[in-house]
Amino acid sequence: METFERKFALQVPSSTENLALIREFVASAAKQAGFAEKEIGKIELAVDEACANVIEHAYGNDANKEVIVRAKLDEREFSIDIEDTGIGFNPATVDQEELEQLINKRKTGGLGMRLMKTLMDEVRYDIEPGKKNALHMSKRLNKG
Amino acid sequence: MPNPFSILTETEDDFAVIKLDGAVDAHTAPQFEEAVQNVIDEGQNNIIVDCEKLTYISSAGLGVFMGFVEEVRDADGDIKICGLSEKVKQPFEILGFESLFHFCPDVESAKDKFSEPTNWEEAY
Fold first, then answer.
1. How far apart are CA B113 and CA B120, in angstroms?
2. Is residue B112 part of a domain?
3. The domain A5-143 is classified under which CATH number: 3.10.120.10, 3.30.565.10, 3.30.420.40, 3.40.50.2300?
4. Does any domain span residue B14?
5. Low-confidence ranges of chain A (pLDDT < 50)
6. 20 to 30 A from B110, CA-CA: which of A55, A56, A135, B94?
7. Which pLDDT belongs to residue A142?
């Protein structure tokens, strides 16, 4: 049986200004994958959260760096890969505090990773300190 | 960039209404944060955030609600959220905002909500 695969890629300067462009790119690719409007919104948000983390934390808002988002569609799933060469982190040590605790501490962040994990079927980090940080996320097509 | 975003703040005697128009993401959230800070600096702690024209919000925008709500509640005020579309409401629901904030259909009902006593301490 012939396998079906389609790839999309977007490369933009590492600036939060480009998050809207990244969302547009991902929404358009997810639409081609046949996802319903609600699911497209979820993918858009997960990728936005991931790229905002890269821009702000890995690259420290250095617009001379670049963010590369790769999307892949096959018969089974829609996947997103985001790779950076900035400051890495250990996903296992990221606090997953409850919303109540974050509010009590008047924190404004700490929800991005939880959102990504809720919105996508799979979220996997591959961190090689000093070399590269790779994030792989996917959503199965048969989930509608 | 295709990210038109604007904020309009209307201050009345008893409330400030902050109207968000467009997408709140990590790029535009600082403007939202500044708008809330300005209202609080002017001494208004009864804040309504009108999301009728909000097209998108990420955790950077949700963080603004989280960062200020304790401060205004300590001053006997609150932040009420109104006018959210089903699509934009999704991240609020996923993260459990509905148990910690009042969501109202429109600005008028949000104003009425301020007259209802709420013990948020019990919610935490």
1. 14
2. no
3. 3.30.565.10
4. yes
5. 144
6. B94
7. 74
Per-residue pLDDT at B6 exceeds 50: yes
The pTM (predicted TM-score) of the whole model is 0.92
Out of A19, A21, A108, name the one closest to residue B63 (CB): A108
Domain layout of chain A by residue ranges: 5-143
Range of the domain at B12: 5-105
Helix residue spans in A1-144 (DSSP H): 19-32, 37-53, 99-104, 112-119
Task: For residue B68, tell me if it sits in a domain.
Answer: yes
| Side chain identity at residue A35, one-letter code | F
Q: Is the Cβ of B30 closer than 8 Å to some Cβ of chain A?
A: no
* In-domain check, residue B110: no
Mutation target among B25, B31, B54, B87 for the A interface, most CBs of A within 10 A: B25
CATH code of the domain covering residue B56: 3.30.750.24
Best residue of B59, B99, B120, B121 to probe chain A, by most A CBs closer than 10 Å: B59
**For chain B, percent of residues with pLDDT exceeding 90:** 87
Cα separation, A45 vs A49, whole angstroms: 6
Q: Which chain B residues contact residue A106 at CB under 8 A? A: 66-68, 70-71
With tokens 């977007």, the residue in question is A10
Number of domains in chain B: 1
CB atoms within 10 A of CB A41: 21
In this prediction, the answer to ipTM > 0.95 reads no
**Contact between B58 and A104 using a beta-carbon 8 Å cutoff:** no
Percentage of chain A beyond pLDDT 90 is 69
